[in-house]
Amino acid sequence: MAEAIQREEREFGSDSFIEGSLALYGSLTDIDFSKFDLDAELPHLVTNGEQGALDKFGQWGSGKPLRRLAKESGTSSSVRLVGTPDSVADDMGAIMEEVGGDGYLIITPLMRINRRYIGEVTEGLVPALQRRGLVRNGYTKSTLRETLLEF
Q1: Crossing angle of helices 15-29/66-73, nearest 10°?
Q2: Cβ-based neighbour number of residue 57 at 10 Å
Q3: Cα 95 from chain centre
Q4: Collapsing DSSP states into helix, strand and coil, what is residue 41?
């Protein structure tokens, strides 16, 4: 199933890929990209959302139409992992060992978020990561503020 989803997401011409890409960047930047012409250059925008993500996505001055920006956003520097919870956890551990960091950001196109996906992450991947000591098993602080300040 995951491999079929990955193949579908790579179909850069598909409307669902473009919609998913724009929805993802819209959620990050707090911008409704449906208001813009897909075949025109995106005007330079400023947001109260994630400005860095918007600047990376917008490629200001490139002359690229919004459709192309949406297609290319799927080929970002993110690592796409497909496999069993154990194989993905192994890969995530190897990547963290190689590049370092203080945690993981798991993202998926908004159209893919459903109970099954959340269950696969929370009941499959997270326990596999915990068994390897790659994510915590519990919290040592009593408040969210104290927990966040641990980093």
Answers
A1: 90
A2: 26
A3: 16
A4: strand
Residue listed under structure tokens 């250059």: 41
Please choose, from the candidates 74, 64, 68, 56, the residue with its C-alpha nearest in 3D space to the C-alpha of residue 17. Answer: 74
Model confidence band, residue 38 (pLDDT cutoffs 50, 70, 90): very high
Q: Tokens 């473009």 appear where? A: 18
Residues 3-28 pLDDT 10s: 555 555 555 456 777 887 888 889 88
Q: How far apart are CA 68 and CA 71, in angstroms?
A: 5
pLDDT above 60 (res 37): yes
Cα separation, 26 vs 20, whole angstroms: 10
86 CB-contact burial (10 Å; exposed 0-12 / middle 13-18 / buried 19+): middle
DSSP sequence for 120-138? IIIIIIHHHHHHTTSS-SS
Structure tokens, 10: 């790579």
Residue 135 to residues 94, 128, 130, Cα–Cα distance (Å):
14, 9, 5
